[in-house]
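Lab notebook, bench 4. We co-purified these components, and the gel suggests they stay together. Before we commit to crystallization screens, I want a quick structural picture of the whole thing.
Request: model the full complex, all chains together.
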Amino acid sequence: MPAITLPDGSQRNFDGAVTGTTIAQAIGPGLAKAALIMVVDGVEMDMSREISADATVKFITRRDEDALELIRHDAAHIMAEAVQALYPGTQVTIGPAIENGFYYDFYRNEPFTPEDLPAIEAKMREIVAANTPFTREVWNREEAIEFFEKKGERFKAELIRDLPGGETITIYRQGEWLDLCRGPHLRATGDVGTAFKLMKTAGAYWRGDSKNPMLSRIYGTAWRDQKELDAYLHQLEEAERRDHRRLARQMDLFHIQEEAVGSIFWHPKGWRLYRTVEAYIRRRQEEGGYEEVRTPQLVDRKLWEKSGHWDKYRKHMFIADVVEEESTLALKPMNCPCHVQIFRQGLRSYKQLPIRMAEFGSCHRYEPSGALHGIMRVRAFTQDDAHIFCTEDQIADETVRFVELLESVYKDFGFESFAVKFSDRPETRAGDDEVWDRAEGALKAACAQAGVEYTLNPGEGAFYGPKLEFVLRDAIGRDWQCGTIQVDFVLPERLDAEYVTSESGRARPVMLHRAIIGSFERFLGILIEQYAGRFPLWLAPTQAVVATIVSDADEYAQEVAAALQKAGLAVELDISNQKIQAKIRDHSLHHVPNILVVGRREAEERKVALRRLGGAAQEVMTLDEAVAQLTREATPPDLQRA
RNA sequence: GCUGUCAUAGCUCAGGGGUAGAGCACUUCAUUGGUAAUGAAGAGGUCCUGGGUUCAAUUCCCAGUGACAGCACCA
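Here is the predicted assembly.
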């Protein structure tokens, strides 16, 4: 006699076991029609499942956000059925719901191409229209393996074989077609609805391992209704407009070309943006007790051998052989070994710690060609790198200080929210477990002290220590690691860094590797997308354009531009033979934040008509006022606070 | 690196076995205008590179390079 408690607190009693469908019907015909799935004591279950004990039950309908994942998961199944119907011999593997949609990985000699998608999508719509019920079956493990092997589905068989011993093996059937699946599922294929679309094909390794065969993946998107789907597709188009590669061309910030793949040619405007960010970070770090250094680009392989990088990353290093000598140099892929060399000059005392050594370090890494992405992932980049040499006791305080600085910097750049990941020991690593226990423990304690909430990223730490990653998201929804802090007990040992203790003994410092923005290239890419090119004034590559209405005002316009330039603003002069409308349009399209319009009237009165980007109104003021106002507005946020 | 797609004017793109086009940008001329496109004329191409097929290749085939998407990688 199960008593079912509903979300509103009310209870209903049934004689004997009941299905979700029965409960929903008892509550009302509307719910019975709408309920896609039930949640029993927090566990999602098919509507057809029976409940025989007391339980708390709620139902998920199309109105619930939670329905999205179910719809997407079912859409993946339906896609798999469609594919196998159209392309016999294709093997199924896995097909989960993901953010905004779903995918399914297939094994097939001929990979799927975009041309295949319309037919598959059409077949899917047929299956949805048929509204075939999903039914759940519990199978015996051995029989399931045998069944799939007989069918030639070796990937499925492997999946079942690898399921943990006690796991119930469930099969979901939709008409003739069936798949191994944990469930739960919607009631029938029709519940998926019609708001879905197949998006693209791609290769993906079986079980995410490049040693395994490559599968053919099809991505789709699915939503609760057409409106949501349209909104999503529209959002994708908008994101494309924010793409930093496109904006860089449009705004003349930088370019990349074949002769220097993965390296950036910074144009004057892009470089100005770069220097503005660099100057800002330099000020913030000086204020934060860092000392800036500069270390060599080319360093003998002996140092990389000692640090362990040669062993692990040699394939990703640019090597320079010297004909005249018997030496092999490498372009530095990172700065830490060099910073240790500075630390090692002379005797260090415990009284000097912590030492915060910063460098805008230019690094080169031979990134795999497929990893390159605009300015976000390159082969030559500059980090806002620093290493904090400190004692074990100082780790927590230094981490707190760092996190505070990072949060303040991100806020100044307009990033209010970002993800934090804690990456712990990887499989191949330097240092024994005791050292890793200490390093991970110290970093966790520091997080607690700093009030940092993170998600765990198991096994993703650096080879020498655990790390916190600060992740920002680009316009297309891709996540990028920018900031990081890493606890390292290993390199000081390998590179023999030590200091004199209060007892006049010798001890190893701990190294904290840390970066706030990470690489300038990546951060600027994200910054461009974040603002869609419409930067706040202090970051704008062109802060103002002086545009004339008539050529009689040319001379005065030059004077205005000179005055702004003298005040430190990035200003351009437009005395071209164009109508003012055309000039406004042109500079607005290039996201110039301020246009100072001068005509005969302004020239006579020594005024300017200031027009803000996107605004229709203009404000007439004297030249002096304009200079003062724009200078004030263009002051970087840290200097405004000072 | 792997799988797929793509590569034509500065940019965005159309085209197609018989040496090529549009819009924007650019140059020149006319126009001196009041807040998101003044008009006209002109210039601009090794159709990514190298092979092959063909009477003929920018177009078809093969290879390379690069870009894009995803996967793998990311000290």
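Chain A has a mean pLDDT of 96. Worth comparing against the SEC data before the next meeting. The first helix of chain A runs from residue 20 to 27.
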